[in-house]
Amino acid sequence: MILIFLLFSLCVAYDQSLSKHFINLSQATYCVSSTKEWNCITCESSIKPEYLVENNGARAIQGFDTQTNTLFVAFRGSSNIQNWIDNIQISKISPYNDSSIEVEKGFYKAYNYLKPELINNLGDLSKKYGTNKISITGHSLGAAEATLFAYDILNDFTNYNILYFYNFGSPRVGNPEFVKSFSSFSLTSFRVTHYFDIVPHVPEEFLGYLHISNEIWYNEANSEYKICNDLNNKEDNSCSNSCSPTHCTSFDDHLYYLNVSMGNDPSCF
What we know:
Elements: H1 2-13, H2 16-31, E1 47-55, E2 58-65, E3 70-75, H3 81-86, E4 92-93, E5 103-104, H4 105-129, E6 133-139, H5 141-156, E7 161-168, H6 176-183, E8 190-194, E9 215-218, E10 225-227, H7 251-254, E11 256-257, E12 260-261
Parallel strand pairs: 3-6, 6-7, 7-8, 8-9
Antiparallel strand pairs: 1-2, 2-3, 4-5, 9-10, 11-12
Helix pairs in contact: 4-5
């Protein structure tokens, strides 16, 4: 009965129009190299970009979102997604006070190139717009960085309130202890996956990695989605994992979410 209630609550809470809003924002991070260039195809007028933070190939955009009345942080994925997948590091590190919590070394390294400036900018944005509410989003590697950022906010910067967290095509970020710790917070997040997208299946589970909940799995045509049952720190084998391990090999599905082409070249100008 409790599980049915939780799944029903997720079904109500998942907002496809908001998801489209955040996939547009995630795609915009690939397209703009300055906050003055807010004129790409997915650059919605409700977004007020204030900062573009870039370091060692990692990039994020921060500002204010008038649609959700939140500060936002949007993380860009890799500029060369196929090469990034081929070169994913599978080693884990324990950067937190609890040494049993481990995350993938490369994701954490990329995120930490941006973290200090992102945190500083949040303080300025909060003062300017008079709110502590945040939206966080990202695609691909950017989804992994968004997950690490959300975890830091939940743990260390509790003066902020994460109102929306939508990520797309995320790889697995950490071990089961990381997932358990992440899910201990009262945050409703949505991890959107698309059909046979290859990226949600790396690094592999047998290497000790696990996805955070709550998965929303779209069919190939992006016309229907399934609310997945992954609330007990496990992955739903009837969702994206249903094509594992031999059929989840599509780069095309990774680069096409909610009918938006993702990456540096498509859907920009």
